[in-house]
Amino acid sequence: MAEPAGKLDINRVLDNTFGVIARHPVIYLGLSFLIIGIPNALLQTAQGNFTTGAGGFNVSTSYSSQGFGFIALMLLSILLQATLIVATLNDLGGKPLSLADCFAKALKKLLPLIGLGILMALGIGFGLILLVAPGIILYLMWIVATPVMMAEDLGVIDSLKRSAELTSGSKRLIFVLLIIFFVLAMVFGLFVAFVGSLSTILLAIITLISNTITGALQGAGVASIYVDLRTAKEGTDTSALAEIFA
Fold first, then answer.
1. Domain assignments of the chain as residue spans, ordered by start
2. End-to-end alpha carbon distance in the chain
């Protein structure tokens, strides 16, 4: 049983994040390719613009369009993240994965998830406008609000409070973890820029791959952080988390 005052284990989070994707590449990469990769690439093609979309856990930062396309991609991003969160909790809990079941559970929570996303965006955005630091702190506090909502069946406000409770004492470690992903994204971004200078077609292909990988990492990453925080702070067994979706 873990100590209640335990903190995030970065190595364990990385192992779980990449482990679940490696064990189920068709689900994680395939679903991300269909839901995020292709739609985002089509939108970027229509704009005549290609970007990597490699922004750590925040896939939606790559969407620069306005109107219906933006809204549609945001909804798809929310569904993808929620679906992969359910899949990750099941996998780490030792349960077999059913893509249809994971998607159905995500779809059932779509409206609360949208409300959660809007409130988070407003709070973090306002914090960034003020002094930058408050926005970053809020992002670190609320990073596991989505898996909290999915796993613990809480409302929007309670999910934010619960996320703040779980991340208390581990925000610096979470920040370090995000820096690691940011550095990886930057390195890959430089590679994309180099490829783009050689061929627009190659750039489009690499961008599609980048968006797909980022989408998979987003869902698996935040769920792995949530599981590790629950394990470290409360000694919660991963199998108990998976039983929520039984």
1. 10-44+57-245
2. 23
